[in-house]
Amino acid sequence: MNNTFYSAGMTLPRSFRMRQLEKLKTVLLDYEEDLYNALQLDLGKSKFESWETEIGPVVQEICYAQRHLKSWMKPRGAATSILHFPSSGKIIPEPYGTVLIFSPWNYPVQLTLAPLTAAIAAGNCAVISLPPASVHTSQVLEKLLADAFAEEHVRTYLGDIPTNTELLKEPFDYIFFTGSPRVGKIVMEAAAKNLTPVTLELGGKSPCIVDRTADIGLAARRIVWGKCLNSGQTCVAPDYILAEEPIKGRLCSALGQEYKKLYGDNPLNNPDYPAIINEHHFDRLCALLEGQKIVSGGRYDRQKRKIELTIIDDPDLHSPVMEEEIFGPILPIIPYETLDDVKSFVCSRPKPLALYLFTHSEDTERRIMEEISFGGGSVNDTIVHLVNHGLPFGGVGNSGMGRYHGKYGFDTFTHYKGVLKKGNWLDLPVRYPPYEGKLSLLKKLMK
């Protein structure tokens, strides 16, 4: 992308950013029906789920940025030391410049347009790599973004491997990647060659912990809901359950019952139940079930690319289902006896993107929140922390780096420039040579 548009200062005024955000919202709603159709073709999503998890969160993100942009953009004062007297400090938000956004196929609308919203609000130009796997949605997004923005401001590419390889050679000012840890490492290695800062929104095996004090029926309903959104193809979906031994059997039964309540006796024919993205991932998921003890579910329809929510009891911990991120409607359940067992199990694995805890015990909540590192999560629910503008969303360790949503998204795409302004009416001689006899005074001033 030619950076002339950014260099000319076109994106800097708040009025320009506000107009662009409003245009994005307007055009997004103009393409609402096209996006519904595309998401149904790619992922089997109903209109309700498409609004709930794709279009609606972006509209919220845009409206939130519009309400708060004026305060976000204001320079703010900063304290200065007596050593610098007389002086004042200021922190000035400025855009990075031209940013590269890689979006994934599992939530192609939300995970393209939410980071783009933050980038625009922060005053950047953007290049977007759209996912080829969700091809129908990517085609609509390409048209949508062409209608909303000048090509010099926002440009899109269909991100096949050769295209992404070429994009990563370019010296962008910031890279925002959502995808797998494996590809995230490739992105970070390429970014290092140009010393480009990155945000990596990755994934991993997010645990769901259920203890004996939990409301088992409600926990089962909320776990099933979170796992079945997008048919489990969600980076923060519960990947496996750690259930306290005395309630494991009841929880297994409740999960099956709640699944039936939500999706009926034949969920494979239920239009509210989404599909797997393609045959490759369908076959991968079916292979994960081989040799496992299935306690409920297990049926599938290859033509519709649908797999029932399948509960696996006490899986082999060295099998692929426990060593790979599942990313589908398969849910292993493992018993535990003590919280020390939980801590040992989770902490022996890469740090997860999300963690969910179902409990009525404040002591259990305190220990899990304080003693286990994870990107973010919920207590007595799943997924919902993702759409709270007041909370940062991002990973830690193997599950990613950086954060966004709301103000955190603006911060991600903003460089905060620190400036010290010095007064001219007094010039303390202590900092200038000769230094003899000044060390003790310097030590006092620098405390």
Automatic annotation (TrEMBL):
Keywords: NAD, Oxidoreductase. GO terms for biological process: aldehyde metabolic process. Residues 13-418 form the Aldehyde dehydrogenase domain. One of its GO terms (molecular function) is aldehyde dehydrogenase (NAD+) activity. PROSITE patterns: ALDEHYDE_DEHYDR_GLU. The active site is at 201, 235. GO terms for cellular component: cytoplasm. It comes from the Bacteria. Belongs to the aldehyde dehydrogenase family. This is Aldehyde dehydrogenase. It comes from Fumia xinanensis.
